[in-house]
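chain below, 191 aa
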Amino acid sequence: MNLTDLQVELRGIEDHLAVLHNEIEKMKPKTDEEKKTDYEAITRLASKHPLRNETIGNTSDDVRKQFFSGLSYILLSSEKDIYARLLYLTRMSVGCGLNWSAEDIYKNGLAFENTGIDKFCVEMQEYAYTFLVEAFVLASLTESASPETFTIISDVAKLMNCDKEEIRFIAQVAKCKLSENTDLLLDLPVP
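prediction:
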């Protein structure tokens, strides 16, 4: 081995150490001030690029608040890649006219546990399909979707009286929305 080979190998080790160092930094808990800064950045970005959901955007404030509180609860089921999912939900909140900040969404998700999922499912029955599509999209935004999140979504679907065929169809609609490819609906078997 010559000097050039050793330098190349040393650079590779340095790069690998840098990657490991970044991963360690991501795992460290953030201070409240760092979180607040992240929330503000997410809110600013979301206000520049809102997402509109016609079904929810045309409902009352109470329905929108319940809808986003339920999605916030699902958002908090896994802390992994939470900021990407929080950005999506904040963009949707702005687009639907609720205008919750990222911090508001996070806090409403924490408070949602006290209201009860059973009551929520009864009150949101009319918007069950829309809610479940958005929940599946929210859970699948990153490559590392949490099994706990899908468990919660399937429990909510059962409480909203959705059967397996409906859940399969809703999940496929969410996949179409994520990939922007409606031809995926043709892959579903005819019931």
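The chain has a mean pLDDT of 85. The chain is about 70% helix and 0% strand.
thats it, cya
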